[in-house]
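hey can u check if this looks right to u? its 543 residues, i copy pasted from the old doc so theres a chance i mangled smth
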Amino acid sequence: MKKVQLKIYLTSFLLGLGFVSCTDLEIEETDSFISEGFQGLENPASALEALYGDVRGQLADQANTYALLEVTTDAQIIPTRGADWGDNGRWRKLHQHEWGLEESDVITPFEQWNKNQLSASQILDERSNSPEDVKLEARFLRAYAMWRILDLYGQIPFRDTSLPSTALPEVLSGQAAVDFILADLDTCISGLPVLTGNSGDELLRPGKAAARFLKAKILLNKHIYVNQLTGGGGSPDAGDMAQVISLVDAITADGYALEDDYFEIFKESADSETIWFTESNVQNVIYAPMHLNQYGLAGGGGWNGFSTLAEYYDLFEGDPESNRVETDLTPLDGQEERRGGVPPEGLSFTGREFTEDAEGYEFGSNVGFGFLVNQQYDLDGSKLQDRQGVDLAFTREFVDGTGSTNLINNSERTGIRIIKYNPRFGETTLHKVQFRYADAYLMKAEAMFRTGGDPTEMINTLRVIRDANPLGSVSESDILDERGRELYTEGWRRGDLIRFGEYLRAWQFKNDGEIGNEKRLLFPIPLPQLLANPNLVQNPGYE
């Protein structure tokens, strides 16, 4: 079958001399002056804005990059509900670790992030005569794009814009890729402005803290990246961990701090935790899990798809069979704040603002915060129902029409839902947090642990702020669990599970034959890219 696929792709490639791919990285004439290859951009500032636009769109999507980062883990799952969410097994294959070479969610991110890093390199080319601030932001976005490719695919096809357009991009991997990205980030740390906590809309642009955050993230995973094409393994370097600690301390010194009210962080307003956010529409991450009969959306109800596993929900403190909050969003006793809860009746609000007394508001929502399980309620406190007239009670388990646990033939009610960006704050808000301080804080705690330190006090400081009980001591699994509780649905779960050696373990619905399969630590290089650039080689296990 593989040979047939290659023949089909090769035939198409030879017939279409104008074949375009992001590893071939052809440059459109509208983007630059063209004679013998790239000659510079006419308007680099405009090109930078276009690049930001691409990044915003990619980070707003519930599919593609987000799907690879979350749906391939224990944190997100999309069962087929009747005829809904079947999509030829697209979502099931990701969660079950059964993806192949032709999945759109595997192919599209490779093309997108490679396009982004080429666009940034064009801006950085001396012939574009870009202003220094434009170059610094382009350098950050190039580092970000190249990191995404390295993290997901292990190989970065990099085009030197000074070479003829017929030259094949070289491929960076392992130590060479890490060094290249870190060099870009060091330049950013030196030249980008200091943006402090609560800087508001200024954080749409990267500051020193954003560059330091990304550098710390890469150093924390460096032993993974350096060895991912040569059998994996390795352990963190003490010097790298010391740098992580120093980088986070510098972020703290800029005025970033843990925020006391967890769900306020995800509003369209300034807070002390946000380090970098994008004007990405949060609509998709709101609509994807919500049932059609839940209110608070200008465009009607939700899409009734994305859910989470009961085992992930059970990481949080609280009654596993109930997740309720009082009318003022106060969690019930013994329930930590981050788990959120279902209000017993609708909560009123106006526009994008919410206050505790909820008096005089004109609009309402019956959608809770965090993990939504069991009965959902209408604005007047009556029970919501699904489209068949059955009480809308989200279940912990995924059960088909015969009563069997299954990922297909589910009802509209199966699966615990997650709402982190709440429609009461605006369902089309252009404010999505990408880097935040709690993540940096936990990176420092992990770096301390990996070099023999005791991060128990740090972890407990965070837990007390989140209304969770302090721990007597902290183990490696405790740190992973704390990251799972703090950062759910923010795109970090896959990387965390890989770094802690848990990505290949069993979880509900994963194919038994894929448990322990190391090829799943990377995604395959799309076949058209292999044909377009012979410098690329297929990742181990996908040959």
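Residues 1-35, 349-363 have pLDDT under 50 and may be disordered.
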